[in-house]
């Protein structure tokens, strides 16, 4: 299992990629998942920073995490998607992540659903032509807000380049056992986001209006192995698979300390599996 950090965790910190990369290497991360706005700003201000530059630290960019507007005019969406694909190639990232609309699966009208799924199919085709995968994240207030809804979305889009970024906490939030849903969705899962919360009553802290605000609440955010999702249970069948890629998505304080400790515990879980396979 390859473990990455997310630059979105450092969204309110004055820390450069030149500082972050050697630290990530020292801790033992496999790569750095770039938030779309960070990837764009770095491309504009420091074009010499790209996938090849990052490889000197034995790191890679597994995914760009961005937000394509499925409600935009077709020409605008196409331009956004092609620009994102160009950015992914610059960083040598094989995957780009987006959301499937901005309404829950039970709230969206049939006309909106058809428009969004058609547009996701079109964007997936654009990404495929660039040698990339398009990942839709399991997330509240989207067409992938539960396991059942995600399966339906995959069936309706029906494109081989469309995959799933399996946000484990949000799958739990949508109902059901995350491990059981992973097993059903496994053919489409290309990445995992891992985070946790102390109790369901605090899930609203991850709403965009709060989590992206510098003064937003962080109540209930806890390190990976201290919350309601049992990650030791969830990750057990994945630990020995080197193809599995996960990103630690921490939105709370003491970013470097929490990420380093979560990685250390993940490494400790993987150690016996590695010894058995050696």
Automatic annotation (TrEMBL):
Q: Which InterPro entries match?
A: IolE/XylAMocC-like, Xyl_isomerase-like_sf, Xyl_isomerase-like_TIM-brl
Q: Does the keyword Isomerase apply?
A: yes
Source domain of life is: Bacteria
User: Which of UniProt's keywords are assigned here?
Assistant: Isomerase
Q: Which Pfam families match?
A: AP_endonuc_2 (PF01261)
User: Does the keyword section mention Ribonucleoprotein?
Assistant: no
**Could you tell me which residue ranges the Xylose isomerase-like TIM barrel domain spans?**
23-266
According to the UniProt entry, its GO molecular function terms are: isomerase activity
List, alphabetically, the PANTHER family matched: HYDROXYPYRUVATE ISOMERASE, XYLOSE ISOMERASE-LIKE TIM BARREL DOMAIN-CONTAINING PROTEIN
This protein is called Sugar phosphate isomerase/epimerase family protein
Q: Which species? A: Balneatrix alpica
What lineage, starting at the top, does this entry show? Answer: Bacteria, Pseudomonadati, Pseudomonadota, Gammaproteobacteria, Oceanospirillales
